[in-house]
Automatic annotation (TrEMBL):
<keyword id="KW-1133">Transmembrane helix</keyword>
<feature type="transmembrane region" description="Helical">
    <location>
        <begin position="144"/>
        <end position="170"/>
    </location>
</feature>
<dbReference type="InterPro" id="IPR036259">
    <property type="entry name" value="MFS_trans_sf"/>
</dbReference>
<dbReference type="GO" id="GO:0016020">
    <property type="term" value="C:membrane"/>
</dbReference>
<feature type="transmembrane region" description="Helical">
    <location>
        <begin position="254"/>
        <end position="272"/>
    </location>
</feature>
<feature type="transmembrane region" description="Helical">
    <location>
        <begin position="182"/>
        <end position="204"/>
    </location>
</feature>
<protein>
    <submittedName>
        <fullName>MFS general substrate transporter</fullName>
    </submittedName>
</protein>
<feature type="transmembrane region" description="Helical">
    <location>
        <begin position="52"/>
        <end position="73"/>
    </location>
</feature>
<dbReference type="InterPro" id="IPR050327">
    <property type="entry name" value="Proton-linked_MCT"/>
</dbReference>
<dbReference type="Pfam" id="PF07690">
    <property type="entry name" value="MFS_1"/>
</dbReference>
<feature type="domain" description="Major facilitator superfamily (MFS) profile">
    <location>
        <begin position="253"/>
        <end position="440"/>
    </location>
</feature>
<feature type="transmembrane region" description="Helical">
    <location>
        <begin position="411"/>
        <end position="431"/>
    </location>
</feature>
<feature type="transmembrane region" description="Helical">
    <location>
        <begin position="284"/>
        <end position="305"/>
    </location>
</feature>
<keyword id="KW-0472">Membrane</keyword>
<feature type="region of interest" description="Disordered">
    <location>
        <begin position="1"/>
        <end position="42"/>
    </location>
</feature>
<comment type="similarity">
    <text>Belongs to the major facilitator superfamily. Monocarboxylate porter (TC 2.A.1.13) family.</text>
</comment>
<feature type="compositionally biased region" description="Basic and acidic residues">
    <location>
        <begin position="19"/>
        <end position="33"/>
    </location>
</feature>
């Protein structure tokens, strides 16, 4: 895909209007009201200012906790397999992390709806209580089903109940700079993914697993408090619960893009999930292997911010598709590296190149319809995408268990990422009727 394209925000506005008008089941009168609402929204989006940047701070704090745990799963996976749950297969253990990750997105259709109705604050308070409680309960787990319930179900569901509203509230405050805003927020994700793995490795020999996890719980509580103090909505809620009419979501471009995120999340976090185990398999010392998760997350953070900046000029889908193709190439190479230097280089570059996809994937959906339905539209995307996040790690774990190495797993993950890039390009063609010009 070419990047020699227009940077005008008018393209985004026209796409939003076209998508909302062509695929809406509303009456003519309701369409006129919706157009007025969208026009008012476009005229008043601050794209900056104290309140807007405080929202970014709050979202970053939430993502630090939500995805700090998720992105530390490679360390948890290795520790559980070797110390806590040695009688369980890699696929069994991977189900804990897979469930946690997928439940962060799976309730999206419901939580997006709740957000549109104006229950953002109550959702935030509920998630704060459940997430922090579950964080402390992990320290008391001993059996596989207990870890599944606390770390898989409770942590995942608590994160899922607030993540989609967290994504949607950004569209209240940013339009032209929205991709950059998402990139900054995702930097919080990467910082959590750096801090938690390093703490995990450093604290367990000093204070043991239980107090390490409790320390994580205190950090999570603090970050959620920051979110409570800084996050707020700007657009008035819809005020009524309309029946979900899926005709609003039959735009071929929207459907294809949602499918792209589903396919992408089948495989994009596979190297991160097994990075510690694969490093140990080629002879990298255990002390260094555990830090590979932090290395991945650090370079991914750079990629997220870089992708956000480029997306403001070139459009999120253009940036994601190009970077994802190169990320797939390094995923193919990952299982074939046999030296420490090559392994670190591949993981570092893979993290950098997959950063734009994992940081920007919600951005295009915000402009594919009416502003007041952003939560529902984003929620539907997240719900479908979550099925890929749920199935991907266990499939990869099963391949590892059957083959005894990571070559088949790398081929599986890289192929899904290439498929996602192709589908993103196709969605752009369906939305704009062109591949090499325009942005979305």
């Amino acid at each position: 895909m070419s990047t020699s394209i227009s940077a005008s925000p008018t393209d985004d506005l026209e796409l939003q209007k076209t998508s909302a008008e062509e695929h809406s089941p509303l009456t003519d009168e309701e369409k006129q009201q919706q157009q007025k609402s969208n026009a008012a929204y476009d005229d008043t989006v601050p794209d900056g200012g104290r309140d807007a940047w405080l929202v970014i701070l709050g979202c970053s704090a939430l993502c630090f906790s939500l995805f700090g745990y998720i992105l530390t799963w490679g360390s948890f996976q290795a520790y559980y397999q070797t110390v806590v749950l040695p009688d369980r297969s890699p696929s069994d253990v991977a189900w804990i992390g897979s469930l946690q990750y997928s439940l962060t997105f799976l309730p999206g259709l419901i939580t997006g709806r709740v957000f549109d109705l104006g229950y953002f604050r109550s959702s935030l308070m509920f998630s704060t209580v459940l997430y922090t409680t579950a964080s402390f309960l992990i320290a008391e787990c001993k059996e596989y089903w207990q870890f599944m319930l606390c770390q898989g179900v409770a942590i995942g569901f608590a994160g899922g109940w607030i993540y989609i509203p967290c994504v949607a509230v950004v569209s209240h405050w940013f339009k032209v700079k929205r991709p950059m805003a998402y990139g900054i927020i995702s930097l919080g994700t990467s910082l959590g993914g750096i801090v938690f793995p390093i703490m995990f490795r450093a604290l367990i020999p000093q204070i043991g697993f239980k107090w390490t996890v409790r320390t994580f719980g205190f950090i999570n509580f603090f970050m959620f408090c920051v979110a409570i103090l800084t996050l707020k909505t700007r657009i008035p809620p819809k005020g009524r619960l309309d029946p979900i009419d899926f005709r609003t979501f039959v735009s071929p471009g929207y459907v294809t893009y949602v499918l792209a995120t589903f396919v992408g999340f089948l495989g994009i976090y596979t190297p991160m999930t097994f990075v510690t185990l694969s490093a140990e398999k080629i002879g990298i010392a255990n002390a260094l292997a555990f830090y590979m998760v932090a290395v991945f997350n650090a370079t991914s953070g750079v990629g997220r911010v870089l992708g956000g900046g480029l997306a403001v000029k070139y459009g999120p889908i253009n940036v994601m598709a190009i970077f994802t193709v190169f990320a797939a190439a390094f995923t193919y190479a990952w299982p074939y590296t046999t030296s420490q230097g090559a392994f670190i280089a591949v993981i570092s570059l893979y993290g950098l190149l997959c950063g734009p996809f994992v940081g920007l994937f919600p951005a295009p959906v915000a402009q594919m319809g009416a502003a007041h339905d952003t939560g529902l539209r984003t929620g539907l995307q997240m719900t479908i995408m979550a099925l890929g996040a749920l199935a991907g790690p266990p499939i990869a774990g099963a391949i590892v268990g059957s083959k005894g190495d990571f070559k088949g797993t790398g081929i599986f993950a890289a192929s899904t990422m290439l498929g996602a890039a192709v589908l993103m390009a196709l969605s752009k063609v369906l939305l704009l009727k062109t591949l090499f010009s325009g942005r979305v």
